[in-house]
């Protein structure tokens, strides 16, 4: 009797959620906290006063809480996925989907926050700049890389 | 309940934590921060922060169905 075809769907969904969460953490930790080139509402509330910096810090915290939730949801989905017998447990597919989620975060957050709502920009001192477009391009590149990795796994498992 | 029971003592940490009595809670700076956060644009800022969430959820569901 032949084995039923294995799926990567639950694994890659978990990976995407983890990637969105971890992509958010990269943004928050590297850009908001270490480099301090922008904060969550830095285009609306200037960060060059103590009060302004602290207000932005609160909104940064809410953002970090949200990406923590995305990561936790991803870990929960991953736990459920690995217990399913019909799921193809591929490290490449998982890593690819994490990259895809990371890129999706950059693309969606970049489009909405940097271009539509203008609540902050990548390099706030310049306002909207080439760095906002680099951020979007990094999202597309990460998504493409992740998609190619997953596609490779799926084509090898189908063969 | 099996999982929750061992976590109950953790609740005791919160009233005991020094952070509960944050150093700026009664300062003028803290009052200005609170006023700025909960000002007229509070709901607008919440909405701005929340907007990517449904878009990301929809994108993940679409990617799972059509792409990955």
From TrEMBL, chain A:
Keyword terms, alphabetized: Membrane, Transmembrane, Transmembrane helix
One Pfam family of this chain: DUF2243
Protein name: Putative membrane protein
Organism: Sphingomonas aerophila
InterPro entries to which the protein is assigned, alphabetical: DUF2243_membrane
Residues annotated as transmembrane: 61-80, 87-108, 130-150
From TrEMBL, chain B:
Superkingdom to which the source organism belongs: Bacteria
Keywords associated with the record: Membrane, Signal, Transmembrane, Transmembrane helix
The keyword Membrane is annotated on this UniProt entry: yes
Transmembrane segments annotated in the record for this chain: 37-63
Stretch forming the signal peptide: 1-21
Protein name: Uncharacterized protein
UniProt entry tagged with the keyword Signal: yes
